[in-house]
Amino acid sequence: MDGTACIKAVAGVVHLRALVTSAKNGWTTVYDEKSESQDMDELRRVAKGLSTKLATDVFAFMLHDSDVFIYMLYQKGKLVDQFNSQPDYFGPVPATERKRWTGDFKKLLRLAPKGISLPKIQKALGKNSLFHDDLVTTFAPVMGMDAERAGTGFKYVQESSHSFQVVHGRGHSPNDAALTDAVQRGDLAAVRELLKKGASPNASDRFGKSLLVSALMSRKEEIASALLDAGADPFLPTDGDAIWAAAAHGHRDILARLLREPSEKLKASASVALPSAVLAGRPEIAKDLLDAGANPNAASESGQTPLMTACFRGPEVMIEILSQRKDRPSPGMRRTIGREWPKR
């Protein structure tokens, strides 16, 4: 495969960074940063995109906690085969679903080195291994791949000494990547310097969280403040933003800063954050969110309101705060909360 064409294709497909190896035995390895978060949809997207752009065969590998090995084979953008060593790992699946993941190994023969037979492929993937890493390192050589390259990932390679090509996705500059790394390791000085150089304070980590949310979740308040000073959007991402992260993880000072300017968007975010503050047993933060316009009666997908959560959790002060917000418990509920069980 043409190395330049491969790197160009990778740059047009990945969202964050990727490492691209030189070709070996006809195989080039791409370590994608974002899909390494065990995001199957992202792995599929990248594999299909590369297969389409390069009009070639692409294997997508995933190893989950040494317990599950998955491969998906794309040919010119079309999924032609897939294998899962433990399809029932996350719970029982129908027989039809299990059959979809058994692997049609005949389709692999044309990609295998000369002399490799179907029984040899079957044996490699039929091993009774305690650790499914072994399946990867056994299967790869059968297909002519380098076992060491196949058995590792972006994070491990990036942290080691390597000579592979670093490729940045569209809109994700080297400074953005360096900023993500600096936030992760808690290097405040580096964060400030990279922000001065123009790194985006709204960049995302490999899990799809904004750097601001990531900093708050890992209790790096000074870094969170630096990102806000540089213009970080507190409402990214929409399914777990900085208001939620600050409330859930007890960053009241940061939360106060985020709640300064009322808006409908802020009220909506505060309503989402309120149950997390209640669940975490943070009455002072729950009050801050309610003062900012959080809806005390907003129900979760399961139909549970913040007051119900407080009742289940038990802190009386939380129930008192919420009951003053026109969501008073019924007499029956109040009796249940402080109930004395009858003596036998």
Could you characterize the architecture of this molecule?
- It is a single chain.
- This protein has three domains: 166 residues, no CATH class; 59 residues, Ankyrin repeat-containing domain (Serine Threonine Protein Phosphatase 5, Tetratricopeptide repeat, Alpha Horseshoe); 111 residues, Serine Threonine Protein Phosphatase 5, Tetratricopeptide repeat, CATH 1.25.40.
- The strands form two sheets. Strands 2-1-6 form a three-stranded antiparallel sheet.
- The protein is mostly helical.
- The protein is globular, with a radius of gyration of 25 Å.
- Helix content is 46%, strand content 10%.
- Helix 1 crosses helix 2, helix 8 packs antiparallel against helix 9 and helix 14 packs parallel to helix 16.
- Strand 4 and strand 5 form a beta hairpin.
- The protein contains 18 helices and six strands.
Label the structural class.
mainly alpha
Q: Helicity, in percent?
A: 40-55%
The profile of the biggest β sheet is: 3 strands, antiparallel
Order of helices and strands: HEEHEEEHHHHHEHHHHHHHHHHH
Spatial strand order of the main sheet: 2-1-6
Number of helical regions: 18
Span between termini: 79 Å
Which outline best applies?
A: globular
Overall pLDDT level: 89
Low-confidence segments, given as residue ranges, are 326-344
Rg measurement, Å:
25 Å
User: What's the number of structural domains?
Assistant: 3
**Share of β-strand residues:** 5-15%
Number of strand segments: 6
